[in-house]
Amino acid sequence: MAEVILKKVEKEYPNGFKAVHGIDLQIKDGEFMVFVGPSGCSKSTTLRMIAGLEDITGGEIWIGNKCVNEVPPKDRGIAMVFQNYALYPHMTAYENMAFGLKFQKTPKDEIERRVTEAADKLEITDLLKRKPKEMSGGQRQRVAVGRAIVRKPEVFLFDEPLSNLDAKLRVSMRVRINQLHRQLKEEGQPATMIYVTHDQVEAMTMGDRICVMKLGEIMQVDTPLNLYNKPANRFVAGFIGAPAMNIVKGELIKKEGRLAVKIDALELELPQEKAKKVEAYVGKNIWFGIRPEHIKSHETHSNEASNYASGNISIIEQMGNEEFVYFDIQGNQYISRLNPDRIKKLNLSEDYSFWFDMNKCHIFDFDTEENISL
Amino acid sequence: MKAKQESQINHQEVNDLLENDMLLRKRRIRRGKINSAVRYAILIAVGILMLYPLVWLIGASFKTNAEIFTSIGFMPKEFDFSGYIRGWKTSTEYTFATYFANTFKIVIPKVILTVISTTVTAYGFARFKFKGKKLLFSILIATLLLPNVVLRIPQYLMYREFNWLDSYKPLVVPAAFAVDAFFVFMMIQFMKGLPKDLEEAAVIDGCNSFQVLWYILIPMLKPAMISVALFQFMWTMNDFLGPLIYISSVKKYPVSIALKMSMDASTLVQWNQTLAMSVIVLIPSLVVFFIAQKHFVDGISTTGMKG
Ligand SMILES: Nc1ncnc2c1ncn2[C@@H]1O[C@H](COP(=O)(O)OP(=O)(O)O)[C@@H](O)[C@H]1O
Ligand SMILES: [Mg+2]
């Protein structure tokens, strides 16, 4: 049983810099939680406080029904995998993995059993006699994960473990870590995993839940799909998803009894459902957000009642199965995600008509940037 | 059609480029050869210039006393070992073996104490936060800049109070307190270059601060520790002033003083004996240096973390 609970956790570095501003978070037993956010948003700081490598200057951290504020790292039931692997350079892979167990006074045969078992799981059995400098980056990271596994921790902490690997290895390691999480669950010893990354693709594919952070504060905690479909605020909306959501400044107006978003001369009508939620904002400035896949071609959606707009195409990014079309409407740039098989071949500088699927749009308060259309 | 033309042009261009590249590379290799020839010539010339006194010393130690001042070349007319034999016996009641033993009684504990104390002190400065650290560090640097001579007299008075005169204590004991600021400074710099992740991983694995130092840092600090040991060994071997001030009985003299003694024992200096003993005194330093050099170079490449 290892729930991890953060209660109003704060961190002020000795130099006076306040890195974490009182965050609350509950991570369930056996959950895979991802911390994601731009560089410098205090993901690592938070993780290191959970590990006990940084003092907590305010609030409490609980691991498995115990407040661990004053508990040293080795007694917290955690294991950590570092970005730079942090393998002891003068020890072989085997010694690296066995090192922590020796300090727990684990019997020798038990150490050997656990190390070989973990090596088996990670397919590093033939590397056990090698030293870190004789291994590739991917192999080192697997040994580092192995070193964490053998301790049988209740909580695994990962700090950007894949960011030093090349793209292909990253994908395969990603899968492997996910498998590990599942495997441990099936073996009846589920481990809570907390995984820090700045890469939103990693976050989306790995996490049971994702905690999006910005400047030492939590922006939203939810499942990957909910983050994507129901971003709580403008920051999350812009951070999750690639290409990013189109977000432009607009005004909410009422016209002939119907609500519409007005962006300069462009007026987009809101469907009844959305309109009800944002009625109070009529006459005010808002941020209007719509994902690229919800701006469609008039060729595929020709019979809608309204919300067509003509844009001047500035950039076309071909992905093969889809294309990202950047276009301008009155100085605002939008991105649309289209299926090239179902429309004519587009040319640069061409005027082309798009349809905005306003059922899927988001409206954010102009000042607080909260999502008001959920 | 157009595409084909393009590809032909490309082909041509690529060929040209390749040829150009070959020429350039050949030229570079030739220039490289000339360069290295010049470089080696200069190095060899300077090397001979630097080494000649040493070579002369070795040669002269086999000459007779009369020959030393009559011939310029370093090869003796015939090898005369009497310098070694008589030199070893010395003009005192002790042989050179006693003086060597004395030297090692100073050097060995001093080197060991220096390595331990500087490593621990540097660990404290490089990795811990404590009150007054800045002040202590400034004092450390200040002692680095302080000329040694200034300290001689107060130190002498202090050791006299301790009743340590005519013993090796004044020469050895200070080393246990990391008094060589230069070594501490060097060690701190080296330690700051080591990644902290490793120590954090070790803390999570259950090490306390001393275990981190012992199991993780010291293996990585080996090159720095070896250089400290090496420098301290050589400096102590060659130290003349320290023993001269504190050691008064001949029985306790180290080789550096014993050598000097052989020069003013009588009015007629037996130069061949002095030179022969100088050669012997050089041997330990040379041996230690060549042994240490290998580890020195070995150690530097073991820090590797990233791929
Ligand atoms: N030891 C430290 N002293 C002072 N400020 C620090 C220290 N470590 C990190 N910071 C600051 O805290 C903020 C968060 O850092 P970090 O947790 O490493 O961010 P992330 O991992 O999300 O990129 C950054 O602005 C960083 O400059
Ligand atoms: Mg980080």
Report on this model:
The complex is a heterodimer of chains A (374) and B (307). Chain A has 374 residues and is an alpha+beta fold. Chain A has two domains: 4-239, 3-Layer(aba) Sandwich (Rossmann fold); 246-365, OB fold (Dihydrolipoamide Acetyltransferase, E2P) (Beta Barrel), CATH 2.40.50.140. Chain A is built from nine helices and 19 strands. In chain A, strands 5-6-7-3-8-9 form a six-stranded mixed β-sheet, sandwiched between helices. Chain A has a five-stranded antiparallel β-sheet with strand order 12-11-10-13-19. In chain A, strands 14-18-15-16-17 form a five-stranded antiparallel β-sheet, with no helix packed on it. In chain A, strand 16 and strand 17 form a beta hairpin. The two termini of chain A are 35 Å apart. Chain B is mostly helical. Chain B has two domains: 2-50; 89-302, MetI-like fold (Orthogonal Bundle). Chain B has 13 helices and no strands. Classes of the chains: A alpha+beta (374), B mainly alpha (307). Chains A and B meet through strand 5, helix 2 and helix 4 of A and helix 9 and helix 10 of B. The complex binds adenosine-5'-diphosphate and magnesium ion. Magnesium ion (MG) is lined by residues 43-44, 160 of chain A.
Short structural summary:
By secondary structure, chain A is an alpha+beta fold. Chain A is 25% helix and 32% strand. Chain B folds into 2 domains: 2-50; 89-302, MetI-like (MetI-like fold).
Assigned CATH class of the largest domain in chain A = Alpha Beta
Number of E-type strands of chain A: 19
CATH topology of the largest domain in chain B: MetI-like fold
Oligomer: heterodimer
Distance between the termini of chain A: 35 Å
Topology-level CATH name of the largest domain in chain A = Rossmann fold
Low confidence ranges of chain B: 299-307
In CATH, the architecture of the largest domain in chain B is: Orthogonal Bundle
In CATH, the homologous superfamily of the largest domain in chain A goes by the name P-loop containing nucleotide triphosphate hydrolases
Average the pLDDT over all residues of chain A and give the rounded result: 93
Strand content of chain A: 25-35%
Structural class of chain B: mainly alpha
Write the CATH architecture name of the largest domain in chain A. 3-Layer(aba) Sandwich
